[in-house]
Every structure is written in structure tokens, then in C-alpha cells.
Protein: Class I SAM-dependent methyltransferase
Organism: Halomonas alkalicola
Amino acid sequence: MPTCPLCASDDAAFYHRDARREYHQCRRCALVFVPPAFRLGPEEERAVYDQHENSPEDPGYRRFLGRLFDPLRERLAPGARGLDFGAGPGPTLSVMFEEAGHPMAVYDPFYAPDPRVFEQAYDFITATEVVEHLFAPGEELARLAQRLRPGGWLGLMTKRATDREAFARWHYILDPTHVAFFSETTFRWLADELGMRVEFPAADVVLLQKP
């Protein structure tokens, strides 16, 4: 069985198969994931992202991001500094926070691949519709948690897996770049692993606070 990309356990079980690929579930952290053999290559992956048309000029996209922006902003001190991880080809959440008085850095492995952002410390880090794309979510999320100042927030937005029957009908698995599917159980495991406090303030939204 493939190794879990979140917790590195080799105790995973077959979960689902569709016309394109297989999915396995880790018995330790409950992550559902796509084994490496079924992942896209870098050029194929970027070709999918290049089709995204997200923009700060789109009020609908701003409303979508508001599900994370609003509860996170309520918890931030004035002038808190943030990083938007996985900002994509049309960074928008960073613009929203800058408009609200929060200096922002952005990082994206394809569109803003500046590793210097990981030399800084932040009051908050956001990753909207990102964690489901990560080949090594355990490594990436631990790195983000390390860049947070004490009391800092990691704000994530991703649709959550529920049960096997719903998973089989789930539109979210149709995107070939989606390879890691988190549940509330998985996020609670992650919070314990990182030594952080977890909240679920809105649909698809997770906030983790560093002590």
C-alpha cells in the first residue's frame, strides 16, 4: 500500500476507484489520497491551473474567499502581517487583506515561486483551495506552521470528505489536480500533531492557532 503523504504511515486501505485513478485512506490520520502513480506531471498540472480565471475584480470570487477572510480577519490584530500560500495566477485574498490594512507576502510554486518568503515570520498564513493539491501536505503544512509567530493563525479552505458513499459521488474528486482529501477527523489529527488549536468557523474553512 502507498505511504500516507500527510502522516507518513504505511497503514492505508483501498477507499475508492473511478475511471481515472485510485484513492486510499490512511488508518492513522484518515486522509484520503491519490497514490503517486495517478498524479499529473508538472506541465499537465500547470496547464489545468492556467485555465483558472480568478481575479480581485470578480465580486463573486471575493464573496467565495470571504468565508475564510471574514472569520480570520476578526481574530487578527491591526496591521498583522500575512502570507498567502498557493496564491495562484490571480492573487485575490492577499489583495483583500491588504485593503484591510494587513501587509501580505504571496507564494505559489508555479506563479510566485520565491523561496525567500519562508525566511520570514508571519502573524497569519492562508491557503485557500490549496491543500487538496499538495503532494506532500504533511511537509508543507509543518513548514507553514513553523513560519507562524506565537499566537499566529493558519487559515485553510478546502472541501471536507465525509464518508465513502458521498465520496464516490463527489464532484471534488473529478479535478485531476485534487490529490489529498481532508476530513474534520484529519484536521483534528493535524492540529494535535502540530500542537495547535483548531476551529471550524464556516463551511470548508479551518482555522488553526499556534500556542
About this structure: The helical segments are 42-49, 59-74, 93-99, 137-146, 164-168, 184-194. Residues 52 and 89 are 7 Å apart (CA to CA). Residues 59-74 form the longest helix (16 residues).
